[in-house]
Amino acid sequence: MVEAAEFKNTLEFAKTLDEQDNLKSFRKKFIFPQHKGKDVVYFTGNSLGLQPKTTLFNIQQELQDWAQFGVEGHFRAQNPWMSYHELLTDKMAAIVGALPAETVMMNQLTVNLHLLMVSFYRPTKTRYKILCEAKAFPSDQYALQSQVKFHGFKMDDAIIEIHPREGEYAINENDIFEAIEKHKDSLALIMIGGVNFFSGQVFDMKAITEAGHKAGALVGFDLAHAAGNLKLELHNWNVDFAAWCSYKYLNSGPGGVGGAFVHEKHLANTELPMFAGWWGHDKQTRFLMDKTFIPMKTAERWQVSNAPIFSMAACKASLDIFAEAGMDALIEKSNKLTKYLEFMIGEINKEKNNCLHIITPSKNRGCQISIVAHGYGKPLFHKLIENGVVPDWREPNVIRCAPVPLYNSFEDIYWFKDVLSPLL
């Protein structure tokens, strides 16, 4: 492919990049919303991914099996429901860099965070603090606050938030490491988003994990904006636990099933505190209905209920596509797309007196680029929508754009620039 230094601000050039794209055929596997008879420029896969065309078939298959077999669908369905979640495990593990035994699809993101923190936030009188990034996704903040209060600690004392420095949007990672060192004797848990939802900043999860362990803390990540977006190596990074949703980059539909990771070093510890449910019980004896809980020695132990089949059917449609494309190829295209988007924003700034400010660090990002349009508010976002461009808005003044390599094109980026520039 053409190098970033050779980018050109022309439609013909964007089409040339698309012709050279080895993943261009994957766009046809998704359904785009329409605007005046044409595909919208859909740059909000970091909020809700597009629907794979195979999703409808997958869900219809389960509806058909339910109609045909009733309860016997647990055993006689084309994909038996008893073990349906296992169909997702290997492909999901490959996306997040985990062993299959460390990976499970279950529940939703914040539910999974709470279930995992039951096991991995075990505060004592002297080691009870949680370190997180300031302006984490609000649901994460609510979860951390409620966990701290549940254990009888005060939020202002127990939660350490790392803020961007004055006048900056991204967090200086040196401040994270300094805070870990400063609080090493009282730090119980580090729980950070792998990608900050607002700025799009990607954190060095490997280095943070190493620093946290050195300080005697456990380390977990919310990967809502990372799973399916970044090259992750959770097992090799020695992360203790992680959780993610699947409706953003993983395209499983609104409220889609969540995912969880627990490092294998914890799986042999069957005495680890947890909230138990019957789908986490040893599957060989589950239906003997004994009152004594026998935990599975995989991440499946944290399942509390049986699988939401329709949600998992939708998720399977997307994971099948990821397996076909491969994360390495997706990351390579993602890097090129975001560089081209960055270039085009620079082209707009040449024409419009530098009115756009990219707040996402160029060296620490995935698909997402967050933009502040100086002097413009939410009406600019609405005008983009009215003109067939669908980014995402975050208060007070940020437009988030996520060119997703599975279905976005370089031509999308050209048309984004072509629509946005006259509005400024």
Describe the structure.
With 424 residues, this protein is α/β, with parallel strands linked by helices. It has two domains: 126 residues, Aspartate Aminotransferase, domain 1, CATH 3.90.1150.10; 265 residues, Aspartate Aminotransferase, domain 2. The protein is 38% helix and 14% strand. The strands form five sheets. It has a seven-stranded mixed sheet, with helices on both faces. The protein is globular. The model has no long low-confidence stretch (mean pLDDT 96).
* Widest sheet: strand ordering: 6-12-11-10-9-7-8
Please indicate the percent range of residues in DSSP E strands (runs of 2 or more).
Answer: 5-15%
Give the rounded overall mean pLDDT.
Answer: 96
Strand pairing plus helix content: what structural class?
alpha/beta
- The 3D shape can be described as globular
Extended strand count: 17
Estimate the helix proportion, in percent: 25-40%
Please describe the biggest sheet, giving its number of strands, its sense, and whether it closes into a barrel.
Answer: 7 strands, mixed
> Radius of gyration, rounded?
22 Å
CATH architecture of the largest domain: 3-Layer(aba) Sandwich
